[in-house]
Amino acid sequence: MSEGLSEDPKQKWEPRFLILKGGDVCLFESPPLSSEDLNKCLYLYKSYDVAIKQVPNDSRRLDKRENCFYLETCMADGTRHYLSFETPQMLEAFETAYHKSVYATVIAMQTRTFACSYEGRPSGLVLDIKQGISLYDIPTKVSNLC
Known about the structure:
- The chain is α+β, with helices and mostly antiparallel strands.
- The protein has one helix at 88-109; strands spanning 2-4, 13-15, 17-21, 24-28, 43-46, 50-54, 68-73, 80-84, 111-118, 121-128, 132-137, 142-145.
- It folds into two domains: 2-109, PH-domain like (Roll), CATH 2.30.29.30; 111-145.
- The chain has a five-stranded antiparallel β-sheet with strand order 2-1-8-7-6, with no helix packed on it.
- β1 and β2 form a beta hairpin.
- The longest helix is centred in the last third of the chain and has 22 residues, at 88-109.
- Residues 9-94 form the PH domain.
- One of its GO terms (cellular component) is dystrophin-associated glycoprotein complex.
- It comes from Cylicostephanus goldi.
């Protein structure tokens, strides 16, 4: 796979190696050849913290490469990688593996709590696979199912 490194149509592409390792999405400059190399990735994201967005083969592409997609993160700086596979089959296989990785990670996690504010009070938003979504008031510990 290759990664486009600028918005310029004459942009420079660099080879990248992408691995889905459990719930992690890892991007490497060179293929990891040992288990130690797996800890030396350029970028490491949780699969549930990234989105993949396929770029249609039309004028929205940055150049003439096909099979392009964005790997977008929920990082504060809005990090996104413009990547390209060599064939449509490789892109499809990656998308399938990515969705399976996200599903398995969410099922294994079961619940996730996010700090938030509701009506000016500190609160927690809980996403739970079995019990659904709930919002609770932190000072009183009172929970309301949404």
